[in-house]
From TrEMBL:
Organism annotation: Candidatus Roizmanbacteria bacterium CG23_combo_of_CG06-09_8_20_14_all_35_49
MF-aspect GO terms: nucleic acid binding
UniProt cross-references to NCBIfam families, sorted A to Z: PRK12497.1-3
Homology family: Belongs to the UPF0102 family.
HAMAP family in the cross-refs: UPF0102
Protein name: UPF0102 protein COX47_00125
Pfam families per UniProt: UPF0102
InterPro entries: Restrct_endonuc-II-like (IPR011335), tRNA_endonuc-like_dom_sf (IPR011856), UPF0102_YraN-like (IPR003509)
Signal peptide location: none
Family annotation (Gene3D superfamilies): 3.40.1350.10
Organism domain of life: Bacteria
Length: 117
């Protein structure tokens, strides 16, 4: 299985996971000048901008470990472009990561990334 196929499959798994957890998926693979957001989802009064990381196994580390500060900055930039066209003044905004290990059938959702400078 190619890395692209694993990634696409992971995004579908993540989308279904979110729906099962009561989220409304607003966009999948949202592209802007600021970059791409794998999934934009909403639950109650919070909008989540989510990066999905999928690996077959964890021999090269956990999937979420691939999301560094630079990636979070790119997600924030893309989220700002989304918000210019889709104002969300009454919503909390969060950057999240869904980490998927296919071999272990493990899904973890880190709902609110925060990074110290």
């Amino acid at each position: 299985m190619t890395n692209q196929a694993i990634g696409r499959g992971g995004e579908t798994i993540a989308k279904n996971y979110l729906i099962n957890q009561g989220f409304t998926v607003l966009h999948k693979n949202y592209r802007t000048k600021g970059g791409e957001i794998d999934i934009i989802a909403k639950k109650e009064k919070t909008i989540y901008f989510i990066e999905v990381k999928t690996r077959y196994d964890d021999t090269k580390g956990k999937p979420y470990e691939a999301v560094d500060k630079r990636k979070v900055i790119h997600l924030q930039r893309a989220a700002n472009f989304f918000l210019l066209k889709n104002p969300a003044k009454d919503y909390k905004l969060k950057i999240g990561v869904i980490s998927i290990l296919l071999e272990k059938k493990e899904i973890r959702f880190y709902e609110d990334l925060s990074w110290s400078s």
